[in-house]
């Protein structure tokens, strides 16, 4: 393994994180300081478990997807033996990408610059004109870098460069969040091998990645940020439609927010979302009536109704720190590209155990919020980032319900609060500060 010496990539300013993460507020510099961002890429995105890909994307041998581990371009592969690998997409010659496709099948990757070739397990297998390098030169010394620690939980593939983290079970990192993933899978039929990624909608956000993660567990904003969507739905289709339970008095509803440990959080919409038929409460979708009628004809009304009730989301907003977000029947991945630029990808899912018509309606539902609601959120993310550039206004407020005495802690350490609480931000910044306060020794395989 190749080791990165502590502090070798960046001179540490010796930040005092206690000065910047305080009860009820965080300093704006955490969002706009490029040196903070660079430290995050080692101390967070290099040092904890990061979601990389879903096993359904690599269902066959010799398949791959291109992703990122923080700033590091990677290729997640399944080799001809069925083994998973996460390879650094950087030729060991001059640094060019060896794979320029986003997904596909490949036994080998060849760098387009000088033709160096690598197998999909990372081994360097061919160097043109290699006799020019002398007798001591060995191709095996030029293998691709490798994420040394990979682990999966019910189809979700995670990786880390940190031996201290990688040698511990992934379930230790997930903690109570693993139970919530199980609940999400249960809503989707219970058999995780039948769930597959069906495509993605991608947004390029001109802002810091934490502006997006701040919102992942925020139950306070929908009534205001998505006012046009809520109002349009009510005016066109009447009361009782999708998300109307966010239209006023949210802390009086049975919805709630939770901190699950290790920066993971959860918002439960299910007590309101499933009060009545969740399928009937959806906004109109192209072809909906015809698909439903065909399904009833094929499988009978009772079974069709049960299948259609699974079409809308699971009613869960589950955030796995720092970058994996379950929203409805989709999941989002946050990828930091620069201090002021972030890739936000919504991955749709389908089910192998459902008729094609059900998956069609499922996709129509999964298109709905990213098209009509995510635009509101992205405008907020970029606006917040712009506002954080004001040097005379130093603090970002995260104090909602901090001093109201409503938080409750159970025997597992899970904290529960009203759905509008800033518990999500306070929880993840606790983990953020813990990780940022140490310098891990990262390794490549």
Write out key terms for the chains shown.
single chain, 445 residues, alpha+beta, Rieske Iron-sulfur Protein, Naphthalene 1,2-dioxygenase Alpha Subunit, Chain A, domain 1, nine-stranded antiparallel sheet, four-stranded antiparallel sheet, 29% helix
Residues in helix, %: 25-40%
Q: How many β-strands, per DSSP? A: 24
CATH topology call of the largest domain: Naphthalene 1,2-dioxygenase Alpha Subunit, Chain A, domain 1
Q: Within the largest sheet, what's the order of strands?
A: 14-20-19-18-17-16-15-23-22
What is the CATH architecture descriptor of the largest domain? Alpha-Beta Complex
Q: What's the alpha carbon Rg, rounded to whole Å?
A: 23 Å
CATH class of the largest domain: Alpha Beta
Which geometry do the CA atoms define?
A: globular
Termini separation comes to 5 Å
Count of the separate structural domains: 2
Strand content: 25-35%
Largest β-sheet summary: 9 strands, antiparallel
**Spans where pLDDT lies below 50 across 5 or more residues:** 5-11
How many helices in DSSP terms?
Answer: 15
Q: What structural class do you assign from the helix and strand content?
A: alpha+beta
CATH homology-level superfamily of the largest domain? Naphthalene 1,2-dioxygenase Alpha Subunit, Chain A, domain 1
Instruction: Give the overall average pLDDT.
Output: 92
Report on the architecture of this protein.
The structure is a single chain. The chain is of the alpha+beta class. It has 2 domains: 49-161, Rieske [2Fe-2S] iron-sulphur domain (Rieske Iron-sulfur Protein, 3-layer Sandwich); 174-436, Naphthalene 1,2-dioxygenase Alpha Subunit, Chain A, domain 1. Helices cover 29% and strands 26% of the residues. The chain is built from 15 helices and 24 strands. The strands form 6 sheets. It has a 9-stranded antiparallel β-sheet with strand order 14-20-19-18-17-16-15-23-22, sandwiched between helices. The longest helix is centred in the C-terminal third of the chain and has 17 residues, at 356-372. The relative contact order is 0.17. The model is unreliable at 5-11 (pLDDT under 50).
């Amino acid at each position: 393994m190749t080791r990165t010496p502590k502090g070798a990539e960046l001179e540490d300013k010796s930040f005092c994180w206690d000065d910047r993460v305080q009860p009820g507020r965080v300093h704006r510099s955490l969002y706009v300081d490029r040196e903070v961002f660079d430290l995050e890429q080692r101390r967070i995105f290099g040092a904890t478990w990061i979601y990389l890909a879903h096993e359904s994307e690599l269902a066959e041998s010799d398949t791959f997807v291109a992703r990122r581990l923080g700033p590091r371009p990677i290729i997640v592969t399944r080799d001809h033996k069925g083994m998973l690998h996460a390879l650094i997409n950087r030729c060991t010659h001059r640094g060019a990408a060896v794979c320029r496709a986003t997904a596909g099948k490949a036994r080998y990757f060849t760098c387009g610059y000088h033709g160096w070739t690598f197998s999909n397990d990372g081994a360097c297998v061919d160097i043109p004109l290699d006799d020019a390098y002398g007798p001591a030169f060995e191709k095996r010394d030029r293998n691709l870098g490798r994420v040394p620690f990979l682990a999966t939980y019910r189809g979700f593939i995670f990786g880390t460069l940190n031996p201290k983290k990688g040698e511990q079970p992934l379930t230790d990192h997930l903690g109570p969040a693993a139970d919530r993933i199980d609940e999400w899978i249960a809503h989707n039929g219970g058999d995780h091998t039948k769930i597959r990624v069906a495509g993605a909608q991608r947004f390029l956000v001109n802002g810091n990645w934490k502006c997006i993660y701040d919102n992942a567990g925020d139950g306070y904003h929908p009534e205001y940020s998505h006012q046009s969507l809520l109002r349009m739905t009510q005016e066109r289709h009447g009361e009782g439609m999708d998300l109307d339970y966010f239209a006023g008095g949210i802390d009086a509803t049975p919805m709630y927010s939770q901190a699950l440990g290790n920066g993971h959080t959860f918002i439960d919409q299910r007590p309101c979302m499933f009060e009545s038929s969740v399928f009937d409460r959806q906004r109109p979708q192209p072809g909906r009536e015809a698909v439903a009628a065909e399904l009833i004809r094929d499988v009978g009304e009772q079974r069709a109704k049960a299948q259609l009730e699974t079409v809308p989301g699971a009613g869960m907003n589950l955030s796995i720190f720092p970058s994996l977000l379950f929203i409805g029947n989709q999941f989002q991945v946050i990828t930091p590209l620069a201090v002021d630029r972030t890739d936000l990808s919504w991955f749709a899912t389908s089910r192998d155990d459902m008729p094609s018509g059900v998956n069609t309606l499922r996709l129509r539902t999964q298109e709905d919020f990213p098209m009509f609601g995510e635009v509101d959120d992205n405008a907020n993310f970029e606006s917040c980032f712009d506002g954080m550039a004001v040097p005379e206004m130093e603090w970002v407020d995260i104090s909602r319900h901090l001093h109201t005495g409503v938080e409750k802690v159970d025997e597992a350490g899970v904290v529960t609060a009203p759905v509008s609480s800033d518990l999500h931000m306070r929880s993840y910044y606790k983990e953020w500060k813990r990780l940022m306060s140490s310098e891990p020794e990262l390794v490549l395989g």
